[in-house]
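[SOLVED] Need 3D model of a two-part complex

Original post:
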Amino acid sequence: MKRKSFREMECPIAQTLEVVGEWWTPLILREVLIRDRTKFDEIQNALGIAPTVLANRLSTLVSHGLLERRRYTHSPERFEYVSTASARDFRPVLDELARWGEKWTPSPGQGSPN
Amino acid sequence: MKRKSFREMECPIAQTLEVVGEWWTPLILREVLIRDRTKFDEIQNALGIAPTVLANRLSTLVSHGLLERRRYTHSPERFEYVSTASARDFRPVLDELARWGEKWTPSPGQGSPN
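Solution:
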């Protein structure tokens, strides 16, 4: 089922979800912003995410200006994804998601996001 | 494509997303918590969401204890969804999502969530 876009909604929550609301995307930002994993292969291994899904989510984040795609080796060609100011300003959202999860979800949600 | 569950991940962000991370769910919580719309039909009309999708998302929120389902008329049978303490404690997440959207997304994301 194709999901409906929130782009036309006049609500800043909907606008934010249009950028970061897809399944996996907040965890990708967690890897980059909190765990300092920026390389495609690192993120993919850490999350156990399908490479095609990861490539799709990263492309969305790059197109909205949260990440910058940089080649770090030529042969083989490999890319990393560096956070911009707008991604770093998403950290408080991740912190609130972690706070809520620690308080209201059962274990195994008792670890730290750090 | 069936999405992967985050239930086994030992991270409170992942645990939170398992509950509220599906497409539409944060906007449903916005309706209940911020706009005070609790009736199924009100929420459905406000969001323009397919009834089957709304029923699915509400069922997930009820099963995780964020909402309580209450019948408010018998004939026809109609239900409303009342927030619990755990849902009300999600408000800071919505506020952070709104703050980020106001700052980093273009219009029409310039309205207020209230």
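Edit: Chain B has a mean pLDDT of 92.
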